[in-house]
Write a structure and sequence with these properties.
The chain is about 70% helix and about 0% strand. By secondary structure, the chain is mostly helical.
Length: about 325
């Protein structure tokens, strides 16, 4: 055992039993071995049916909206937070899981029942409650890791994911910023959020898919070898192209079949926003890879065959959807300004 992995043992205790009074010493990250080609092929075979089910299921939920949509986002948020808290527990932290999950669910619910402003206020309140809750714990040596880890779980998973609710119900959330006349001038339809969610997911999913296949076909130069050794610059460029084209294809399909839903999003905005969202999606993927690398795990869970856990699939949308939401708000302000 190296000096970094050693822990203090209490006199008379069983060897390896760590004193609860000891401060948290997160383990250093260690390199994970690259997957062999056969393992990659097996994962790809398992990914295809899982991806088909996810695409059809998510598409259906986006279309029907309402409470089923919010309930689905809540479920994804809870499962994602649980996976995140397991990651930081593997590093030696002890998150306030119950409080974190409660505030995470509340943030998503407030995004639907209230506004994004109220959701941000709730985020502030969650931090205050977590600090007070930590004061009541007997051990204070773990306070920093416990509070910061729990709050980051609420922020990284729940608050970022709440923008999937704000986007789907964009007409309502934009109503907090614009009056009815401005909404009419923007050509926003009450169900325009269906298009915005399909557009965002098309860009992010196809960017991830394009990066995967472009990287396997032409990948030579590593993008971030210390974080994710399998990701390449060529793959990222391929993802950038396929993600942007996917967004344009989504815009074309809606203009052809459901033009009233995509009328508020002109073509001159589709290309630059598609590029930005693709880049953000790649960054989101790297961020989640960084967290997994630090926790010394390959996947955050095994819920999705061939794809890992919820966070393994939601990494790009967690950053991409909030950026899309604020870009849409900014573009709307420019049009009515």
């Amino acid at each position: 055992m190296s000096a970094d992995d050693s822990q203090t043992v209490r006199p008379g205790s069983v060897a390896g039993e760590v004193s609860s009074a000891e401060p948290v010493h997160p383990r250093p990250p260690t390199p994970l071995p690259d997957e062999p080609p056969k393992k990659q092929r097996d994962d790809l075979v398992r990914r295809v049916p899982t991806a088909a089910v996810l695409v059809l299921g998510v598409g259906y939920i986006i279309v029907i909206g309402g409470y089923p949509y919010v309930a689905t986002v809540l479920l994804i948020g809870i499962l994602g937070q649980l996976e995140f808290y397991r990651l930081i527990e593997d590093k030696g932290a002890r998150p306030l899981t119950g409080l974190g999950l409660g505030f995470g669910a509340a943030v998503i619910a407030v995004a639907y029942l209230g506004t994004d402003y109220l959701a941000m206020l709730l985020m502030t309140a969650s931090l205050l409650f977590l600090m007070v809750a930590q004061l009541r714990k007997a051990q204070i040596t773990e306070s920093l890791a416990s509070i910061s880890g729990t709050f980051f779980g609420v922020f990284y998973v729940a608050w970022l994911l709440s923008h999937a609710v704000l986007l789907r119900f964009f007409y309502t959330s934009a109503g907090a910023w614009f009056d009815s006349g401005q909404l009419l001038a923007l050509e926003l339809h009450p169900e325009s959020g269906i298009f915005f969610m399909f557009y965002g997911m098309a860009v992010l999913v196809l960017c991830d898919t394009g990066a995967y296949f472009a990287g396997r076909a032409w990948g030579r130069r590593k993008l971030a070898p210390e974080i994710s050794p399998n990701k390449t610059i060529e793959g990222a460029l391929g993802g950038l192209v396929t993600g942007t084209l996917g967004g344009l294809a989504c815009k074309a399909a809606f203009d052809l079949f459901w033009p009233h839903l995509s009328a508020a999003f002109p073509w001159e905005a589709a290309i630059p926003i598609g590029i930005v969202i693709s880049v953000v999606g790649i960054v989101g993927d790297l961020v989640e890879s960084l967290l997994k690398r630090d926790a010394q795990v390959k996947d955050t869970g095994q819920l999705l065959p061939g794809m890992g856990g919820i966070l393994d699939r939601a990494d790009a949308p967690l950053l991409g959807l909030p950026v899309l939401y604020y870009l849409l708000l900014g573009y709307a302000f420019m049009r009515v300004g």
